[in-house]
Each structure stands twice: as structure tokens, then as C-alpha cells.
Amino acid sequence: MTDMDNNLEGFASKVIENYAVGQEIDLKNMILIAATQGKTNLSISARFPRAEFLNELKAQGFSFEQLGDKLVFDWSDLVFNGGSDD
User: Fold this and answer.
1) Closest by alpha carbon to 62, among 41, 34, 46?
2) How many distinct structural domains can be found in the chain?
3) Domain extent for 56
């Protein structure tokens, strides 16, 4: 819809690609960015998601559907604590 939406999806895709070669990701921060833009879901490219990655997301409480080569995350039922820096 906007350049920011496109940038966010591009960033998400890059994060997934990086995970595929063994780098760590911080999906929660990525989703927090989207949430601050008023989004309640995010669709990202995940051409070859590893089963361990999907299991890790489920264990962390992320709600998502795998639709073809996309992972669609929905956090409309989650509450995020704002304003905390690690």
C-alpha cells in the first residue's frame, strides 16, 4: 500500500533469507515495527522455511499460516509491551 509497507515486506524477506543461511533473526522486533504502523498481520516471503524455524516460531507463540511461499503472521490477539529497550 505504501512505500513503508513495501520496505517492511522487503526487510522481512531479507530476514527470512538470512535465517535460511544460518543467521539469527529477530522476528518479534520486525513485527513490532509493523504493529506500530497499525498493522495486525504481515505476509513475508519464505521460499524454503526450515521446519526447525517454523517450530521455533510456534514455540514463541507466533501465529502464522504457510500459504505457498509466504508466511502470513497474525498478531491481532497479542499484546505487546511498548517502550522497553533491551
Assistant:
1) 41
2) 1
3) 3-74
